[in-house]
């Protein structure tokens, strides 16, 4: 496989890791808030499924990133470099600490304490920001990028992470609880969409800088694809809010189908998010070789 | 009113941010000896400062003289309190041109590389 193929694979693993994290956190969040007191919805199993996906993606990312760091050409080369990555790099230490925190959150959630579990999982989710550009840079721009990344990740985790649990809950909730769940989820979704738009604008200015780069660079094209899918996600959310929610409970199957599709689109957005974080932003392409 | 304030704040923040370049990988910010410089006394170490924090165990630096012989005496070292700096001890005994070739891994997991030269001429 050539270098671009490895970058793509690392990006997909990172995106999968992100999706698992978001799903586990979003499930805990929904359980602690809008679904508080509602038992037997299968949310614990869903949180563990998210944890499993986060582990799978994280393991792939750790191995591929170790190979890249060490320039390893063989499995034995990767294995011999793993202790150094795990114990002496911010990437390795933060990745493993975040996984441990999510495991702890899962265990606490399993014991029936969704609120503390949600707080711990939230910390583990937003710690991802310190593995991005803002976390690596200092100064004013670094601080702005880091703040944007934290808000961007938090908003995406709250919105997209809650969708799988929402999908499951819509199937099992009694009819009288359906409308209030769908109705109360809407303001959260609107706040998350607003936050995502504003933070994406800052990231565009600082990392992409000129609109033509959306068509002429891999980073820009990936950002553009994310933007198009984001627009589709907003369309699904609007459809759910204005068409299906007022017609509940009759529209329950249609609403579930729509949320299922929204979840699938959200997964693709997160895979693209994992990929974009592996690419070189256009703002600094001219610096290469200095 | 609140919309106007929000719009104004965003414009100021974006305008301010636009004035700064975003070095979203580790690039060489400055070095001692500086690239292209001519110095009278050989340095005991080459100090490299980057635009981002580094994963030092996976950064490599070689310093070679004009014949291609390496003059660094150990791997790059961390500089306590400065996550964005590397120090490379060197043993330079003769005047001449020295080339520094570096490969950096930043804490956001990206790899960069570059090279520069300096002259030692008493």
In words, what does this structure look like?
- The complex is a heterodimer of chains A (290) and B (122).
- By secondary structure, chain A is mainly alpha-helical.
- Chain A has one domain.
- Chain A has eleven helices and no strands.
- Chain A has helices at 3-32, 43-70, 75-88, 90-110, 114-126, 133-136, 139-172, 175-208, 213-216, 218-244, 252-276.
- In chain A, helix 1 (3-32) packs antiparallel against helix 5 (114-126), helix 2 crosses helix 3 and helix 7 (139-172) packs antiparallel against helix 11.
- The mean pLDDT of chain A is 90.
- With 122 residues, chain B is mainly β.
- Chain B has one domain (23-120): Immunoglobulin-like (Sandwich).
- In chain B, the strands form two sheets. Chain B has a four-stranded antiparallel β-sheet with strand order 1-3-6-5, with no helix packed on it. A four-stranded mixed β-sheet of chain B has the order 2-8-7-4, with no helix packed on it.
- The longest helix of chain B is centred in the N-terminal third of the chain and has 17 residues, at 2-18.
- Classes of the chains: A mainly alpha (290), B mainly beta (122).
- Chain A binds chain B through residues 65, 68-70, 84, 88-91, 130-133, 135-141, 144-145, 198, 201-202, 205-207, 209, 277-278, 280-281, 283-284, 287-290, and chain B through 10, 13-14, 16-18, 20-28, 51-53, 55-58, 84, 105-114.
How is this structure best summarized?
The complex is a heterodimer of chains A (290) and B (122). Chain A has helices at 3-32, 43-70, 75-88, 90-110, 114-126, 133-136, 139-172, 175-208, 213-216, 218-244, 252-276. Chain A is mainly alpha-helical and 290 residues long.
Helix content of chain B: 10-25%
- Low-confidence stretches of chain A are none
Counting copies of identical and different chains, the oligomeric state is: heterodimer
Q: Structural class of the helix and strand makeup of chain A?
A: mainly alpha
Q: Could you say how many structural domains of chain A there are in total?
A: 1
């Amino acid at each position: 496989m050539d270098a671009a193929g490895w970058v793509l694979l690392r990006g997909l693993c990172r995106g999968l890791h992100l999706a698992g994290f978001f799903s586990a956190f979003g499930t805990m969040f929904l359980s602690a808030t809008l679904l508080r007191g509602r038992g037997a919805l299968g949310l614990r199993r869903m949180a563990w499924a998210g944890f499993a996906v986060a582990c799978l993606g994280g393991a792939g990312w750790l191995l591929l990133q170790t190979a890249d760091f060490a320039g390893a050409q063989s499995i034995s080369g990767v294995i011999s470099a793993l202790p150094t990555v795990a114990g002496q790099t911010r990437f390795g230490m933060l990745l493993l600490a975040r996984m441990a925190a999510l495991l702890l959150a899962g265990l606490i959630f399993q014991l029936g304490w969704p609120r503390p579990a949600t707080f711990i999982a939230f910390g583990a989710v937003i710690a991802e920001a310190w593995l991005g550009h803002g976390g690596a840079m200092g100064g004013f721009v670094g601080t702005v990028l880091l703040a944007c990344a934290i808000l961007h990740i938090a908003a995406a985790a709250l919105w997209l992470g809650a969708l799988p649990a929402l999908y499951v809950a819509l199937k099992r909730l009694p009819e009288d609880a359906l409308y209030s769940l769908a109705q109360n989820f809407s303001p959260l979704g609107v706040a998350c969409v607003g936050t995502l738009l504003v933070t994406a604008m800052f990231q565009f200015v600082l990392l992409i800088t000129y609109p033509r780069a959306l068509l002429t660079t891999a980073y820009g094209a990936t950002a553009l694809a994310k933007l198009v899918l984001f627009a589709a996600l907003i369309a699904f959310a609007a459809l759910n809010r204005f068409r299906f929610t007022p017609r509940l409970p009759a529209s329950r199957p249609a609403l579930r189908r729509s949320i299922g599709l929204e979840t699938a689109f959200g997964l693709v957005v997160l895979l693209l998010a994992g990929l974009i974080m592996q690419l070189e932003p256009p703002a600094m392409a001219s610096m290469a070789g200095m | 009113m609140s919309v106007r304030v929000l719009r104004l704040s965003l414009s100021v923040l974006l305008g301010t941010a636009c004035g700064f370049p975003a070095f979203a990988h580790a690039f060489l910010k400055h070095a001692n000896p500086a690239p292209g410089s001519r110095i009278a006394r050989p340095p005991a170490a080459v100090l490299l400062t980057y635009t981002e924090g580094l994963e030092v165990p996976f950064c490599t630096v070689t310093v070679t003289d004009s014949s291609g012989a390496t003059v660094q005496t150990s791997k790059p070292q961390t500089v306590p309190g400065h996550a964005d700096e590397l120090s490379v001890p060197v043993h330079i005994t003769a005047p001449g041109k020295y080339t520094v070739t570096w490969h950096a891994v930043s804490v956001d997991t990206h790899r960069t590389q570059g090279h520069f030269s300096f002259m030692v001429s008493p």
